[in-house]
Design brief:
five-stranded mixed beta sheet, 9 strands, Immunoglobulin-like
Amino acid sequence: MAITRRILLVSVLVMCLTFALPTTVQGCDAQCKYDDFSVVVDYANYLDLDGDSAEDDVLTIARVYRDTQYSSVLKTKIFSFVQVPSGRMFHSIVNVNGDYSNLVITIEWFNTAKEAGWYDLDIFVIVITTDGAQFLYTSLSFDPPEGGDPGPPLYPDVEINETVSLS
C-alpha cells in the first residue's frame, strides 16, 4: 500500500511540474532524442547478479546525455520502474547533483525476474538546468525467463532512493 501511495505522489508531482513548466514530453521506444537531451536504454535483461545460481535478477543500463553546447545541468532526478507480468511494480529513484555530458545509470534489480512473460521498463527523467527544466521518458519491454515461480511472488517491496553528487 505504501508503494502505491508513493507512486501516486510521484505521478502527481510530475503532473504538477508538467503544468507549471511549459515544455513538451514525448514517449518513445528504447531511445529518445530531444532538443538538447536524450535518454537511452542500452540494456535490460535477466541474469544472476547476486551469485545465488538463479538467473532471477534484472540488470538495466540507461544513459542520459546532453549536447555540450547546452547550459549547465544543476540537478537530475531519474525515476525507474520495472513492472513484472503479474503487474507488480518495482521502482528506483536516483538524484544526481552536478553537471555532466553523459550519465550512465546501472540498476541491479535483485530477485525480481521470477515470472514468465513480458517485463516493462519505464524511465522518467527530470533535468534541471540553468535555462529551465527538461522532461524525458523512455520505455522498453523485454521477456526474461521462460519458466518461473507459479505461486505468489516471494520477494519484498523494493525501494531505492539514492543521491549522487558530481564534483
